[in-house]
Amino acid sequence: INISQPSFSGTDVFGYTSFLAYSTIPNITFYYEFHLKFQLLNHHSALQDNLIFFTGQKGQGLNGDDFLVLGLCDGRVVYSYNLGSGTATIISKPLDLTLNIHVIHLGRYLQKGWLKVDDQKNKTITSPGRLVGLNVFSQFYLGGYHEYTPELLPKGSRFKNGFQGCIFDVQVRTNMNQEFKSPGTPEGHPNSGRSVGQCKASPCSLIKCRNGGKCMESGSTV
Questions:
Q1: Torsion of the alpha carbons at 172, 37, 77 and 222, rounded to the nearest 10
Q2: Name one Pfam family in it (predicted).
Q3: Which of 65-69, 113-117, 144-148 has the lowest mean pLDDT?
Q4: CA proximity to 126, closest of 162, 102, 90
Q5: How is the beta sheet containing 196-198 ordered, strand by strand?
Q6: How far apart (Å, rounded) are the C-alpha atoms in residues 74 and 72?
């Protein structure tokens, strides 16, 4: 399947998530801006605790680790970042579940962050403490984590489940005068992934089972 709009299946029975991992986003320290769109698998998937994207000091497991994370919790978009001196979090109003596609704009300059979801009003926040730079070492994870357990990630960034649905048109810039680009090196190309499909396309449509067999889609497997 040619994947242009990734589809994520969430977290499977073994606790593994479907995900795409892109190279670390360069020059993200003092300024970044993201645009992206997503489509929920169903309304129930908006009401859980699902990761949209993450980058940070992955695997350190210590308070104060720098990170940037976006997810869904109880039908709202949650955007958090930690510059090393405390976590700043913006929570949107409940999503309008009659919309087929949701649009997110978010950003940060030094300590000040902002989030705009669909037609909701722009929300802003200022991170605590004195630190103004985001120092991340991990890849940019979309839709889920590579790790089995979110507990390995910095405190405050641990969404329990992977995303369920499609995430697409992800664009980022790290300078106000830059054009937006897709993550990855080369641009738009992930380094790795697990159990990712194409939005609105079923792998089973490519398979003809014989002898009475039936193709069934499942989540990620080891």
A1: -90
A2: Laminin_G_2
A3: 144-148
A4: 90
A5: 123-126, 112-117, 102-109, 31-40, 164-173, 6-9, 196-198
A6: 7
The residue among 220, 222, 160 whose CA lies nearest residue 196 is 220
The CA–CA distances, whole Å, from 210 to 120, 182, 200 equal 50, 41, 24
Q: What is the pLDDT of residues 139-160, one digit of tens each?
A: 999 998 877 566 666 766 778 8
Helix count and strand count (H, E) for the chain: 0, 14
User: Considering Cα of 62, then 76, then 193, then 173, what sign does the dihedral take?
Assistant: negative
| Cβ-contact 73, 208 below 8 angstroms | no
The two tokens of residue 205 are: 């449509």
- One-letter amino acid at 212 equals G
Using DSSP, state whether 75 is helix, strand or coil.
Answer: coil
Asked if the bond preceding 26 is cis, omega within 30° of 0, the reply is no
Per residue in 168-177, pLDDT tens?
999 999 999 9
CB proximity list for 57: less than 8 A, separation 6 or greater: 65, 66, 67, 135, 136, 137, 138, 154
Alpha helices in the chain (DSSP H): none
Q: For tokens 């958090």, what's the residue?
A: 80
